[in-house]
Design goal:
Blueprint (H helix, E strand, L loop, with lengths): L1 H11 L8 H31 L2 H4 L5 H8 L4 H11 L6 H8 L5 H13 L1 H15 L4 H16 L4 H10 L1 E6 L5 E6 L2 H13 L12 H19 L14 E3 L1 H4 L7 E3 L2
Antiparallel strand pairs: 1-2, 3-4
Helix pairs in contact: 2-5, 4-5, 6-7, 7-8, 7-9, 8-9
């Protein structure tokens, strides 16, 4: 490990500002491959650590607890890594393909998810699945594996739907400057409905429209909300329809810079 750390420190201390773009591009490709190798090695060591009762040896009730406290991982991330490590020795084709660079790190993660969910079916079809998705991107890999899952396990089970229903949720927080931050998970039906609504409000950009796709999607979401508040049939609260209060003073109405103009929040 000391040799690995020394090699990484050599890279970290390198002056990248003056590197040729070809070198930078090659480095990025190599770093992605190396990160995949490191992930495989971590899974191998975690699997061995658990087999040898490492967590209990150090006084932890579980492998997840060890990773959370000794490695300072978030609970969700520790749980995902533990579940993948437990199929490390059975998903050999996936691991070998990832190590050889045939699969990206993200593709391997998608395959390992299926190895965890459907271990018996995945063991039977793993070699063929790796061959199928080898030349795919991550999105197409996920689609192909979903089609495969449906072929061996049906189009969805009650437990799948219940898990998705429980996972659903959206949070909206505001920074001190008033910018909002949206984060969450939507069910498949809600995701499709929201996507269809946003796409309807996002025609192809006109010449001179310099907005990024993310910015156009933001503006479409604002249009969707404003249209509903203005023309929809929202419920009343305390006898009032939903609305936004804008607080301003007389200088603001006169267009004086620095005058008061803000929402109640």
């Amino acid at each position: 490990m000391s040799a690995l750390r020394s090699a990484l420190e050599e890279w970290v201390n390198e002056d990248v500002e003056h590197l040729h773009l070809d070198r930078l591009a090659d480095d990025l490709v190599e770093l992605e491959h190396v990160s995949g190798l490191l992930e495989v090695e971590r899974l191998r060591r975690i699997s061995t650590f658990e087999e040898r009762s490492g967590p209990h040896h150090f006084g932890y009730p579980s492998l997840t607890a060890f990773l959370k406290h000794r490695c300072r991982m978030a609970s969700g991330r520790a749980h995902r890594i533990v579940t993948r490590s437990r199929v490390f020795r059975t998903a050999r084709t996936t691991i070998r393909a990832s190590t050889a660079g045939r699969l990206s790190t993200d593709q391997a993660a998608v395959l390992l998810e299926q190895a965890v969910t459907l271990p018996n079916q995945f063991a039977e079809g793993e070699d063929r699945l790796v061959d199928i998705v080898e030349d795919f991107g991550v999105t197409d890999t996920r689609k192909a594996l979903e089609y495969w899952r449906q072929s061996v396990d049906g189009p969805g089970t009650a437990s799948d739907e219940l898990a998705q229903h429980d996972l659903r949720g959206v949070s909206l927080s505001e920074s001190l400057g008033g910018m909002g931050h949206i984060e969450g998970w939507t069910t498949p039906s809600a995701s499709q409905a929201l996507r269809a609504a946003l796409e309807a409000l996002m025609p192809p950009p006109l010449p001179g429209d310099t907005r990024t796709p993310r910015q156009r999607r933001h503006d479409a979401l604002e249009d969707l909300a404003r249209h509903f508040l203005d023309h929809g049939d929202p419920p009343t609260v305390g006898g009032e329809k939903p609305h936004i209060n804008l607080v301003c003073d007389l200088p603001a109405l006169r267009g004086v810079a620095g005058a008061l103009h803000e929402t109640e929040n």
